[in-house]
Amino acid sequence: MGLRLGDTAPDFTAMTTDGELSFHDWKKDSWAVFFSHPADFTPVCTTELGRTAALGSEFAKRNTKAMAISIDPVEDHHAWAPDIGEVTGTPLNFPIVADPDHKVAELYDMIHPGEGDTSTVRSVFIVDPENKLRLILTYPKSVGRNFDEIVRVIDALQATDANPIATPADWKPGDRVIVSPGMSTEDAKAKFENVEEFKPYLRYADAPK
Ligand code: BEZ
């Protein structure tokens, strides 16, 4: 059975561009974005890893670490890494796992045989401080991911962990939120500002400060 939301993110020890790392030890009690790319020296992957590097300070503000993985050997990762900085303007600032024997890719079900070869597809796992999987995304090899969306999901997860709220479609930090269905409107009015009942099941409120 594949990985599901709420499962513990499988731990592993592997060679990376920052040396040998064990996933749980490396992330400790931070959030993590663990994502696969199909191959080194490929155009879409170069833009994606550069974009992730550029978001380094945004991830840090959110107590979040990034880690990438492909089935290429660590020598290839080291040879390709300078291209990422050269092409995108931000040098690599997070580890890339080398997974030539596919051990980690298989643990995370990142190889989809229908997608052409044994390279990894574009999987994304957001892992919380307790090592639980909180988001799983899978993109095809031909489509680069939207990393603003990944940051937005981290914001939404952190906001909904902190308060009995959910976030509506296209929510961005600062937008109004939805009161959790389990909370009465009366209790919501005592807890949140500007509670508005559109339907008994759909109550908006200002985002908690
Ligand atoms: C790329 O990163 O450009 C790429 C990799 C595999 C298939 C298609 C595109």
State the helicity in percent bands.
25-40%
Whole-angstrom Rg: 19 Å
Shape: elongated
Oligomer: single chain
Mean pLDDT: 97
Count the beta strands.
11
Q: Mind telling me the CATH superfamily name of the largest domain? A: Glutaredoxin
Structural class: alpha+beta
The biggest sheet, with number of strands, parallel, antiparallel or mixed sense and barrel status, is: 5 strands, mixed
* Portion in strands: 15-25%
**Strand order in the sheet with the most strands:** 5-4-3-6-7
Please give the CATH architecture of the largest domain. Answer: 3-Layer(aba) Sandwich
CATH class of the largest domain: Alpha Beta
Give a quick summary of the entry.
This protein is an alpha+beta fold. It folds into two domains: 13-152, Glutaredoxin; 163-205, Antioxidant, Horf6, Chain A, domain2 (Antioxidant, Horf6, Chain A, domain 2), CATH 3.30.1020.10. Helix content is 32%, strand content 24%.
Task: Explain this structure.
- With 209 residues, the chain is of the alpha+beta class.
- It is 32% helix and 24% strand.
- It has 7 helices and 11 strands.
- The strands form 3 sheets. Strands 5-4-3-6-7 form a 5-stranded mixed β-sheet.
- A hairpin with a 2-residue loop joins β10 (196-199) and β11 (202-205).
- α2 (43-54) crosses α4 (74-88).
- The mean pLDDT is 97.
- It binds benzoic acid.
- Benzoic acid binds at residues 38-39, 42-45, 141-142.
Write the layout of secondary structure elements.
Layout: E1 13-16, E2 19-22, H1 23-27, E3 31-36, H2 43-54, H3 56-61, E4 64-70, H4 74-88, E5 96-98, H5 103-107, E6 122-127, E7 133-139, H6 147-162, E8 165-166, E9 177-179, H7 185-191, E10 196-199, E11 202-205
Parallel strand pairs: 3-4, 4-5
Antiparallel strand pairs: 1-2, 3-6, 6-7, 8-9, 9-11, 10-11
The structure holds benzoic acid (BEZ).
Residues 38-39, 42-45, 141-142 line the site of benzoic acid.
